[in-house]
C-alpha cells in the first residue's frame, strides 16, 4: 500500500515536471551535461577555466568598454551608465562621448553593436570576473589627434568623429579590429574549455562588427570625406599604417586599398577584410594592443583612448615593467 502511494506521487511529480519544456531540457542537461545533440563534449581532462586565462580574458574588457561607450553614445547619446550601470563597476564616465549625426540605418547598426558590447562585458565579467571601466577618452579632440598622427599633418578643420556617418564609420574602423586581433592573439594561450568558448564567441562577433564597418566604408571608398580632399580608402590606409607603426611588429593591419602583393593571394588590390598571407586574421599581444590604443607606441605610456592606462593585471604590470 505504502509502495503504491510512493509510486503514485512519484509519477505525479514527474508528470507535472515534464509539462514544462524548460524543465524537460534542464533535466536532460542534468542527466547528460554534454548533450551531444546540442554541444560538443569537452576533452575529459579539460578544466573549465585555467587561472592563466583570467587575466587574458579580463584584459579584453579594456577594449570592450571602449567600444561599448563609443557605440552606445554614438547611437543613443548615452552610454553604459544608462543601459547597464552595474557593469561599469564604479568606473568614471567616458570623456567627450556624444551622439553622432548618423543616417538611420547606420544608427541602428551602431545601436545594436553597442548592446552587443554590453553582452560581451557581462559575459566576460560573469565568467572570469572583472574590474571597473577604465577612464576612456572618446572626445572629438582625441580622434582628431589620432587622424593628425595618421596623416602626419594637422587636418583642418580637425577631424570630428561625431559630425556625420562617414566620419563615425572611419572612427569605428579604429576599434573592433583591435579586439579581433587581440582575441586571435590570446587564443593560443587560453586553456580552459569555458574560456575558449567565451573567446571564440567574442571573436566571432568582433570580426562581424569589423566586417560590417569595413563593408560600409568599402562601398564609399572612392568618395572624398568632406571637407577634405582625401578619399575614404586613404583614411583607412593611413589609420592602418599608423597602427602598424605604433604596434611596431610588422604589417598586421591593412586598409581598403593595398598594393597588389598585399591583397588576398597577392592577386587583388581591394581589401575588404584585413588578413595575413594565408587570409587568416592577424594576432596581436596585449602589449601591441596597448601601444596602439594608448596612441603612444609604448605600453608604459598611457594616452589616447585610455589616458590613465588600461585596467587589470596585464595592463597594470606592463605600465611599470622593465
Ligand atoms: C561635417 O559634415 C558635413 C556634412 O557631411 C560636411 O559638409 C562638413 O564638411 C563636415 N565637417 C567636418 C569638420 O567634418
Automatic annotation (TrEMBL):
Q: Which Pfam families match?
A: Ferritin_2
Q: Which InterPro entries does the record associate with it?
A: Pigment-catalase-like
**Where are its TM segments located?**
none
The UniProt keyword set, sorted, is: Signal
Transmembrane recorded as keyword: no
Highest taxon of source:
Eukaryota
- The signal peptide, as residue positions, is 1-26
What is this protein's record name? Answer: Desiccation-related protein PCC13-62
